[in-house]
Amino acid sequence: MTPFASHPSADGLWTRLRAIDGTDTALVVEAGVIRWTGKRASLPARFASMRVHDGGGALVTPGLVDCHTHLVYGGQRANEFAMRLAGASYEEVAKAGGGIVSSVRATREASEDQLFESASSRLRNLLAEGVCAIEIKSGYGLALEHERKQLRVARRLGEAHGVTVRTTFLGAHALPPEYAGRSSDYIDLVCTQMLPALAAEGLVDAVDVFCERIAFSLEETERVFQAAQALGLPVKLHAEQLSDMGGAALAARYGALSCDHIEHLSAAGIAAMREAGTVAVLLPGAYYTLRDTQLPPIAALRKAGVPMAVSTDHNPGTSPALSLLLMVNMACTLFRLTVPEAIDAVTTHAARALGLQATHGAIAAGMPANFVLWNLQEAAELAYWFGQRPVRTVVRQGRIAEGLGA
Ligand code: DI6
Ligand code: FE
Questions:
Q1: Substitution candidate for ligand 1 out of 70, 236, 327 with most atoms within 8 A of CB
Q2: Which residues contact 32 (CB under 8 A, 6 or more apart)?
Q3: 22 Cα to the center of ligand 1, angstroms
Q4: Which residue out of 210, 213, 216, 282 has the highest number of ligand 1 atoms within 8 Å of its CB and is therefore the one to mutate?
Q5: Cβ atoms within 10 A of the Cβ of 5, count?
Q6: Which is it for strands 371-374 and 131-137: parallel, antiparallel or unpaired?
Q7: Which of 59, 76, 140, 211 could make an S-S bridge to 374, C-beta 3.0–4.6 Å?
């Protein structure tokens, strides 16, 4: 693999670009940072002599942000997909020893290098589509050494591929088999040993819990949030995916960055999220794979002004999705997001769901250069096509990562 640091620098004047609103635009990159952006005609004279990158009229957007993934795991679960096609429900598969726990087995068996290789090949699909920042959760190790292995791989992926990675500790994803019937003891382990140790190693940017009747209760979720808060770590939550547990309101009380899934989110949950400034992360890939019929309360979220993000939720069980653009299409088609909402959902709002709004999800002076040139005429095409790879050029962390011979 070519080291990312040897990719060509994106420094210079990027011109003949079309902004999302259709206006003619240009931008200047210096030392990997966007120094200026605006109409070409108003380019300050001091930039006029810079090396020119001709955009050729391409549409330009901020680099995409995939704000909820479980990218690092061993094996895959196509067999369960087949079981569900033969009639089993997700919960039945989980109860029969499949589900998350089967990925836990495979993840524990895999070496760090094996996990790195398999996750790298998945990550390449996302990067080729313009992803410039990604969240990666643990949660398939469920024991200190294996959660550590997953999070170390996540950090390595960021370095090797030159992509911003935010790691999320999801030790409370499922009950490991050795703790069967001892959920409270496992949560103790998560709070008093796993999380403090991994945080001390600098491996944790945020903390998440799967709050659900097949996973952890509201009370257990709160214990994990308290442990995170004591360490000064932000929280997020897998909330109200299969039932209304009241998780979103709890997460909002802890100032959560985001509540994710939220198909069964209540009016009280929405109000609490609005108060706390918590982002609603919509995951159409899981909704689609599970053939869910309970739509997230989009109209109410919109009315309340809760920012909505969209992500792949890449995971081997409920969303083996490796295309964020496909999720954009699905968020529009299945959830009825408008095109501007769907674009914000994978840029500015997704960045906010990771606490990265100062550096990602927008094209603005002072931000690191993360942007994508698309072979498209208009912004609606980003949501309209599916299965197309319309990327022309990706500039990631100030380097030309894809296209232009990179
Ligand atoms: N919610 C999900 O949809 C995934 N995890 C979670 O907390 C499912 C993960 C899996 O089935 O492996
Ligand atoms: Fe998830």
A1: 70
A2: 9, 10, 11, 368, 369, 397, 398, 399
A3: 39
A4: 210
A5: 9
A6: unpaired
A7: 59
Dig out the tokens for 87 from the structure: 């009639």
Average pLDDT, the chain: 96
Secondary structure letter of residue 181 according to DSSP:
T
- Ligand 1 centroid to residue 336 C-alpha, Å: 24
Supply 166's token pair: 């935010």
- CB of 158 within 6 A of ligand 1: the answer is no
Which whole-number Å values give the CA distances from 205 to 169, 234, 235, in the listed order?
8, 7, 9
Residues 264 and 350: their CA atoms lie apart, in Å, by 21
Q: For residue 51, what is the DSSP state?
A: P
Question: What's the confidence (pLDDT) of residue 161?
Answer: 97
| Amino acid sitting at position 45 | A
| Secondary structure (DSSP) of 183-214 | HHHHHHHIIIIIHHHHHHTT--SEEEEEBSTT
Note the pLDDT tens digit of each residue in 49-58.
999 999 999 9
Query: What's the pLDDT tens digit per position in 119-168?
Result: 999 999 999 999 999 999 999 999 999 999 999 999 999 999 999 999 99
Q: How far is CA 184 from the centre of its chain?
A: 29
Sheet holding 12-18, edge to edge: 33-38, 24-30, 12-18, 52-62, 371-374, 391-396, 399-402
Which ligand 1 atom is at minimum distance from the Cα of 319? 3
E strand or H helix at 109: helix 100-109
pLDDT of 209 higher than 70: yes
pLDDT digits (tens, 9 = 90+) for 361-390: 999 999 999 999 999 999 999 999 999 999
CA of 103 to the centre of ligand 2 (A): 14
Question: Residue 172 gets which letter from DSSP?
Answer: E
Q: Which atom of ligand 1 has the smallest separation from the CA of 77?
A: 12
Give phi and psi for 356, each to the nearest 5. -105, 20
- Ligand 2 centroid–CA 238 distance in Å is 6
The model's pTM: 0.97
Ligand 1 close to Cβ of residue 234 (< 6 A): no
Q: 381 CA distance to ligand 1 centroid (A)?
A: 30
Which residue has tokens 């490796």? 322
Q: How far apart are CA 32 and CA 162, in angstroms?
A: 12
Query: For residue 259, what are its two tokens?
Result: 């509540």
